[in-house]
Amino acid sequence: MREYAITTDSNSDLPLEYIEQNKIGIISHYYNIDGEDYGEGNLLPANEFYDRMRNGSMPTTMASNPAVIRDVFTEYAKEGKDVLHISFSSALSCGCSNVMDGAREICEEFQDCTIKVIDTLNVSLGQGMVIMKAVEMRKAGKSLEETAAWIEANKMDFCCQFTVDDLFHLYRGGRVSKAAAVVGTILSIKPILYVDDNGALLALEKAHGRKKSLAKIVDNMTDRMGKYREGNPLVCIAHGDVLEEANYVAELVKAKVPTDKVIINTVSPSIGAHSGPGAIGILFMGEKR
User: Fold this and answer.
1) CATH top-level class of 157-285
2) Residue burial 14-33, b: 16+ Cβ < 10 Å; e: rest
3) Residue 45, class by beta-carbon neighbours within 10 Å (0-12 exposed, 13-18 middle, 19+ buried)?
């Protein structure tokens, strides 16, 4: 069995320590804020990024660079390794198609190399949880083909629910109308959104007030977990620079679900540019998204 690398993109929001420990290859998605581009080798600290947004800066985002993708895959091919790439949702970025194009080109050049690209149809630590499962399977001796087949068969069980604190960032991204953003802000309406089976973001319901919206995403998680509720399940919480509230959500989770495995991390700027400061997502395995 050939050795294989696991790669992903920066939107997976995995903790840096985990990435380094497990030698995960990262392909950057990019963002621009205040006239400067960030990404590959030039990263803005997340708290500074979100502070700039709070002060009125309006970032834009860009998908992965085809030249960088080819360079990353070429390096693994020259090392005699195959690659399992686990991608951010194709419904939300052209990054997945960029990676698929790059994989085809490299496999044509290095015909003994296999590069399998999986579209997780997921975001943030929902995508990150898929990567963690792939790492677990690789450590258990599973082949690239076995790992990829399991993920394809089970990826719809990786779920994401989230809420945002400021509707105007969703308005900028075309998720809500300007009228809905204005009225919602006045009435303190907080939308509950989820990633559907097509990998797109959809509004599910509304909550009145911040605390109610945070409680609601936890309730929705427990309603959907089903068989995955047992056995000390992993639950991830991604946040837009609101660690105290993320810790509060973690306590709500532990009160509802028998688990001591909760990972909390910041939403990457290339996602946070659209969700804004204060966004909180809960990522888990469930029987329905």
Assistant:
1) alpha beta
2) beeebbeebebbbbbbbbeb
3) exposed
The three state secondary structure string of 177-206 is CHHHHHHHHHCCEEEEEEECCCCCEEEEEE
pLDDT of residue 40: 87
Q: Are 253 and 237 in contact (CB under 8 A)?
A: yes
pTM: 0.94
20 is written with which tokens?
Answer: 């380094």
Distance CA 173, CA 183 (A): 17
User: Would you tell me the crossing angle of helices 124-139 and 144-154 to the nearest 10 degrees?
Assistant: 140
Per-residue pLDDT tens digits for 164-184: 887 676 666 555 555 445 444
> In the chain, which segments carry CATH 3.40.50.10170?
4-155
Largest CA distance in the chain: 60
Q: Which helix (H) or strand (E) holds 215?
A: helix 210-225
Fill in the DSSP letter of residue 92. Answer: T
| pLDDT tens sequence across 99-125 | 999 999 999 999 999 999 999 999 999
pLDDT of 241 > 70? The answer is yes
**To which H or E segment does residue 263 belong?**
strand 261-266
Task: Give, in words, the CATH class of 4-155.
Answer: alpha beta
Q: Please tell me the total number of residues recorded for the chain in this structure.
A: 289
CATH 3.30.1180.10 domain span(s) along the chain: 157-285
What sign does the CA torsion over 241, 97, 139, 233 have? Answer: positive
- pLDDT tens, position by position, 195-228: 999 999 888 888 989 999 999 999 999 999 999 9
